[in-house]
Design a protein that fits this description.
single chain; 5 helices; mainly alpha; about 110 residues
Length: about 110
């Protein structure tokens, strides 16, 4: 019989990542924080994220918002096994916070 692939336990989203989002004062700083978060994932674990919602190379706040949306849709539409959903949820929480920060930065720059 085929064995299921090993899926490592998902760690909680570290406060450090949310702090990095909050400390971003420009879109470029935010994009760099997002790229660092994605780079911190092992490639095999990143492959657990549904392809349509998997971050590849994020370059704009619009891409951050689009990924937050796609991650939410993936979680709602697919029957994702619990151990995989923990990873998708971790990514979704981070991108939701990043999208919120992007909106704040956009609003601030529009006022200036």
């Amino acid at each position: 019989p085929a064995t299921a692939p090993f899926i490592p336990a998902c760690p909680p989203l570290e406060r450090e990542w949310l702090d990095r989002l909050e400390s971003a004062h420009t879109e470029q700083e935010l994009v760099l924080a997002v790229r660092a978060f994605v780079a911190s994932w092992h490639p095999a674990t990143l492959e657990l994220i549904p392809e349509v919602a998997r971050p590849v190379r994020v370059t704009t706040r619009e891409e951050i918002a689009a990924l937050a949306y796609e991650l939410a849709r993936a979680r709602l539409r697919a029957a994702i096994p619990h151990d995989v959903d923990e990873w998708v949820t971790r990514m979704h929480v981070f991108f939701s916070q990043a999208a919120s920060r992007a909106a704040m930065l956009a609003a601030t720059s529009a006022k200036a």
